[in-house]
Specification:
It is a single chain. Strand 6 and strand 7 form a beta hairpin. The protein contains four helices and seven strands, in the order E-E-E-E-E-E-E-H-H-H-H. The protein has a five-stranded antiparallel beta sheet, with no helix packed on it. A two-stranded antiparallel sheet has the order 6-7. With about 180 residues, the chain is α+β, with helices and mostly antiparallel strands.
Length: about 180
């Protein structure tokens, strides 16, 4: 299973898998229902692989946080995103013990729990999901906002989303890696 191709689309509930690239956009598949749809290049999308969460001293990729949570939950479903703030913060502490409580908001933790449970229900949360095969080449599908970023070095990171629209589709405590 390829977690690298999972996206969130601003204004649409759920998570989607990138299936194919078109001239004017992309074909995506809803991860639970497997319904396919097309989205335009102007759609605001967040590639989950490009999201990181703040810790006290650095940033941790979202997939590392999801993997930590999966291990803590024994690869089973976690609490609901509608749980109490205290329960959500306890879940976050299990997944990322040194998360930055000032920059990771409850709304971000709710989004993490919701995305984790969606991925779990769709069968993406397994021990094998987090293992990258040696020599496995990652097929890249160019995202609309990434074409201009390809010249930027991959190690450079910004402290906030590039646009207000992008910020709405990604948790506030996360940002996109340039690359």
């Amino acid at each position: 299973m390829q977690l690298e191709k999972i996206i969130s689309i601003s204004g649409k509930p759920g998570l989607y898998k990138l299936v194919s690239q078109l001239k004017s956009g992309f074909i995506v598949e809803e991860v639970i229902t497997k319904k396919k749809a097309s989205i335009s290049n102007s759609s605001q999308v967040s590639l989950l692989d490009n999201i990181a969460m703040f810790t006290v001293d650095n940033e941790v990729p979202l997939f590392t946080v999801l993997e930590n949570l999966a291990k803590e939950e024994d690869y089973k479903e976690t609490i609901s995103h509608k749980s109490s703030e205290q329960d959500l913060r306890e879940m976050m502490t299990k997944a990322l013990p040194n998360y930055d409580v000032d920059r990771v908001y409850v709304s971000d933790i709710k989004k993490l729990a919701q995305w984790y449970n969606i991925l779990h229900k769709a069968g993406y949360i397994t021990p094998e999901s987090f293992v990258k095969a040696e020599g496995e080449e990652q097929q890249e599908i160019a995202m609309p906002e990434q074409d201009a970023k390809k010249a930027a070095p991959k190690t450079e990171k910004s402290a906030a989303p590039k646009s207000t629209a992008a910020a709405k589709s990604a948790p506030k405590s996360t940002h996109r890696k340039q690359g």
